[in-house]
Each structure stands twice: as structure tokens, then as C-alpha cells.
UniProtKB/TrEMBL annotation:
The lineage of its organism: Eukaryota, Metazoa, Chordata, Craniata, Vertebrata. GO terms for biological process: innate immune response. Keywords: Calcium, Disulfide bond, Metal-binding, Secreted, Signal. Belongs to the pentraxin family. SMART domains: PTX. This is Pentraxin family member. One of its GO terms (cellular component) is extracellular space. Homopentamer. Pentaxin (or pentraxin) have a discoid arrangement of 5 non-covalently bound subunits.
Length: 202
């Protein structure tokens, strides 16, 4: 249970990452991924990377610059333009559903205009899920200049597209539905220079 805890990625650039364990019974037709990050990086960095043997960017949350988030499904991406952060925690949720191909993006509890992405696609279940690096091969192939440096917290992955109420609940750290990956019951392995610390402030 990582309640009120964070992963601190201490170095920049870095070879460190956190490997997450999720039990996926079947491929994903819908999903939502949420996390909170705190960094002063202005270079590109990867937040959440979900790779299968067939597709290294099966699910990817990537920040190429301070005013953009890229959300990948099955190797294709849409870009969400955001105001430059004011040196504070940023909470993001990205949701996707195969039937409509609609990609949702929420920043700090607010929805951005929805976009179209990979309609009819299915996300594979046999995955390597990594925080802090972008996988170019299954479980590896990192470019250290895309590594994350800073603090990560409140990581979740659901096999549904969350309702607007639940998206806001995730931002406010309220009670959430059972998840494939849940911060309060996370199975993880730290690889390299990452430290678990208490949150500095709420």
C-alpha cells in the first residue's frame, strides 16, 4: 500500500525504472490509466509504458515537451496541448475505448477535447508495464534521454473507460473502483536509482 507515498526518480538522465505487475486475464478493449507526476524536466520523458512483444508502444503516456502530452494506443498517438505547468504536481488520466476509437484526456480533473485513435484495436494482455522509461523492445530498449526524473504517485490502470465522476474522483484521490493496477495495492519492482518516500505535501 503506497498511500501518501511517491517514487522518487533521483537522476537525470537515468537508467532507472519501476516494473509493475498486473494480472490481465484478457486483452483490453477499453482502459483508463491515471497517474500523478512532479518534475522540472523540459526535455521529453516517458511516464507510463505498456509494451507487448508485438507492439512496444501498446499503451504509452509520453510528455515530449512541457506543453504537450502524447497518448499512444497500439503504436499510434494523439497529442493533447496543455498549459505549461506551474511547478506543481500534474494529475493525468487517459482513457480509450475500442468500439468508438475515442481517446479521452483529463488534466488535474478537467477533460480536454476528445480525439479519435485506433478504432477497433485490441490491446494485448501479455505486457511489460514500466514507469519512468519508454520501451523500444519488450521490457527494455530504453533511451535514457526519454527517462523520467522527479516524483510519480497514484498510478492506476482500469480495464474500462472511467465515467466523468470517476475521473474526477481519481484526481481528488477519492474511493475508486477495483483496478488492474492500484496504488493502494501495487505489485512493483524497483530497478536502479528509485526511492520510495513519503509525499511532501497533500
Amino acid at each position: 500500500d503506497l498511500y501518501r507515498k511517491v517514487f522518487v526518480f533521483r537522476k537525470d538522465p537515468s537508467d532507472a525504472f519501476v516494473l509493475l505487475g498486473a494480472r490481465l486475464e484478457q486483452p483490453l478493449q477499453n482502459f483508463t490509466v491515471c497517474l500523478r507526476s512532479y518534475t522540472d524536466l523540459s526535455r521529453p520523458h516517458s511516464l507510463f509504458s505498456y509494451a507487448t512483444k508485438a507492439q512496444d508502444n501498446e499503451i504509452l503516456l509520453f510528455k515530449p515537451k512541457p506543453t504537450e502530452y502524447r497518448f499512444y494506443v497500439g503504436g499510434k498517438f494523439v497529442t493533447f496541448r496543455v498549459p505549461e505547468g506551474r511547478g506543481d504536481w500534474e494529475h493525468v488520466c487517459a482513457g480509450w475505448e475500442s468500439a468508438t476509437g475515442v481517446a479521452e484526456f483529463w488534466l488535474n480533473g478537467k477533460p480536454w477535447p476528445r480525439k479519435g485513435l485506433q478504432r477497433g484495436y485490441t490491446v494485448g494482455a501479455e505486457a511489460a508495464i514500466i514507469l519512468g522509461q519508454e520501451q523500444d523492445t519488450f521490457g527494455g530498449g530504453f533511451d535514457f534521454y526519454n527517462s523520467f526524473s522527479g516524483e510519480l504517485s497514484d498510478v492506476y490502470l482500469w480495464d474500462t473507460a472511467l465515467s466523468p465522476d470517476k475521473m474526477r474522483a481519481a484526481y481528488l484521490s477519492l474511493r475508486l473502483p477495483p483496478a488492474l493496477l492500484a496504488w493502494r495495492s501495487l505489485s512493483y519492482q524497483v530497478k536502479g536509482d528509485v526511492v520510495v518516500k513519503g509525499r511532501l505535501r497533500e
